[in-house]
Amino acid sequence: MAGHGTSSFQPQNKTVRWIDSRLPLFSLAHEQAIAFPTPKNLNYMWTFGAILMFMLITMILTGITLAMHYAANTELAFNQVEHIMRDVNYGWLLRYIHAVGASMFFFAVYMHIARGLYYGSYKAPREILWMLGVIILILMMATAFMGYVLPWGQMSGWGATVITNLFSAIPLVGPAIVEWLWGGFAVDNPTLNRFFALHYLLPFMIAGIVFLHVWALHISGNNNPTGVSVKSAKDTVSFHPYVTMKDVFALVCFMLLYGYFVFYAPNYLGHPDNYIEFNPLATPAHIVPEWYLLPFYAILRAIPSKLGGVIAMFSALLVLFVVPWLDTSKVRSAKYRPMFKIAFWLFVVTAVALGWLGAQPAEGVYIVLARIFTAYYFGFFLVLMPVLGLIEKPKPMPNSISEAVLHKDDGLPNAQDQNWIWGGKRQRGRNLPRVAGEPAAGAPTQPGSANAAQKD
Questions:
Q1: Nearest alpha-carbon partner for 52 in 176, 195, 215, 206
Q2: Angle, vertex CA 141, rays to CA 135 and CA 146, nearest 5
Q3: pLDDT digits (tens, 9 = 90+) for 160-219
Q4: Is 81 exposed, middle or buried, given 0-12, 13-18 or 19+ CB atoms closer than 10 A?
């Protein structure tokens, strides 16, 4: 990854030095995963990137293993999934890790996006970083939708029918596109086959975009809760051990939640109709997609026109691409933007409400509420973001990250000195501030002082 100059990595091992002089993989890893300077005020909302990386690897590994036992055939698919659950050693565990993992993956990515919106992580110079993230989100949705179809259950089969049918709303070419997607005149074996192929392929495309996403991050650096850019080494800490240890702690907490659903409520986030084999002659009472797609499903149904609903649903995602240019404020973080903060939390309520409405019948008051929240969803991006940036008076901001953390630049240890202390090598003679009550090096202990009391 470019932009960081000569590596400070000095390998001690001969083999590592030999490899690194010819292919500097170890230098790259050291610069990007150990020595990478990171703002020292990152909170736990900044740990979801590592969690997402863990989830992507988990989903790919479990997905490949499950694919070894799956058959993409409408006559076999449903029974093959049951075979995995009952006959394959730990097949039930692999399937639950994969199925629940999709929900955990989306939970983490939505938290990641919410953090980006709240702290203005999309603003310059991170526009491409943000847009790559939106591409990842869209690819994730496509992958999850196709994966949901593979068990060939009643809800997944009808979900595929409804969602693919949306393309028929496109004038002139719509019906032809639908037939091309289906591979025939209805959702059938060719549909399942191509969905399986794409579901297997897309995660590797996601991994490629994630690489670019991380690359862009390491060029522009992390945003932080203040939104103030890094101005000196005192504003940063090395990525390892400070950020890595924090990420590991957050990951353990996340895995406790993940493990709870895998072992105690594996089907809680799914739909019971998916344990019935797909019957193209019997429609379920309501077509309900997975929870992470419900807000967009509610937007689709809130528009009375079919074509209008499709446009609104895709626009709800595509609008994220232009967020860096819709926000006219010069202040990044909502922490210092009182009006935007209120608008943001109302947007969170809107997203949750749309998710709930997406699971309700498309009738009566539910449709009215869905239209109100859909209006706010687009109003937040297209009206509030541009207008609030012009009329809002932000709160006073700190001059630097260090000032925000320490309230003032009082000479406390910087990143290098902290490394020195944390390494357990605190040495006399180093120009470090003394802890209150601690005598200077070589100073005689005063009778009655704290140190004297400890000795006594």
A1: 206
A2: 130
A3: 999 999 889 888 899 999 999 999 999 999 999 999 999 999 999 999 999 999 999 999
A4: buried
Q: How far, in Å, CA of 307 to CA of 315, rounded?
A: 12
264 pLDDT more than 90: yes
| 198 to 165, 181, 204, 454: CA distances (angstroms) | 18, 12, 10, 68
**pLDDT of amino acid 153:** 94
As a whole number of angstroms, the distance between CA 45 and CA 225 comes to 9
Tell me which residue of 142, 59, 147, 150 sits closest to 97, measured CA to CA. Answer: 59
Does residue 282 sit in helix, strand or coil? coil
Contact 281, 119 (CB under 8 A): no
- How far is 38 from 224, CA to CA, in rounded Å? 9
**Which residue type does 449 have?**
S
What distance in Å separates the CA atoms of residue 65 and residue 124, rounded to the nearest whole number?
41
How crowded is residue 117: how many other Cβ atoms within 10 Å of its Cβ?
21
What's the pLDDT band for 455 if we cut at 50, 70, 90? very low
Whether 158 has a pLDDT exceeding 60, the answer reads yes
Structure-token pair, residue 194: 């191509």
Is 301 in contact with 176 (CB distance < 8 Å)? no
* Residue located via tokens 């390998």: 11
One DSSP character per residue, 384-427 reads IHHHHHHH--PPP--SSHHHHHHSS------HHHHHHHHTT---
Query: Tokens 């080494």 belong to which residue?
Result: 233
What's the start-to-end Cα distance of the chain, in Å?
A: 57
Using alpha carbons, select from 260, 353, 291, 326 the residue that is nearest to residue 155. Answer: 291
What six digits make up the tokens of 21? 């002089």
- Could you tell me the CA-to-CA distances from 9 to 36, 342, 414, 422 in Å, in that order? 12, 46, 21, 20
- Spatial CB neighbours of 384, under 8 Å, sequence gap ≥ 6: 340, 343
Q: DSSP letters along 345-378, please?
A: HHHHHHHHHHHHHHTS-SSHHHHHHHHHHHHHHH
pTM: 0.86
Mean pLDDT of the chain: 88
Strands (E), 19-92: 37-39
CA-to-CA distance for 353 and 295, rounded, in angstroms? 8
